[in-house]
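Write out this protein's structure.
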Amino acid sequence: MKNVENSKPFSFFLEFLLVLFFFAISMMIVFRIYTQAALIHQEDAQRLQALTYARTQIQNEDELVPGTYGLSEDMKKEGSFYQVVIKEEDSGYGTFSVYKGETELVVLTYFSKGEGL
């Protein structure tokens, strides 16, 4: 017959391992959710910055020059963090696109002020 005093430390140790395992798995799940939320927040902040920049450029410029331009991370000077592509069509409309790498952040369509007014 087993002695009760000898089995208590083993059951306590087994229960402790189960609790530790549960909290480790819970921590990994919470950490993964947190990192995904942080990435989504960062992408949305970049998209908002690109949208603000594109809207400001379209409203302030009399004539946008078609082409591809590189901008820094703060969108104030030349660099390679963002890529701005301006295209004009024959109908007087154009597109103002902002990319980060291969990801398209913003595409705005604008009407050229010089034609049709």
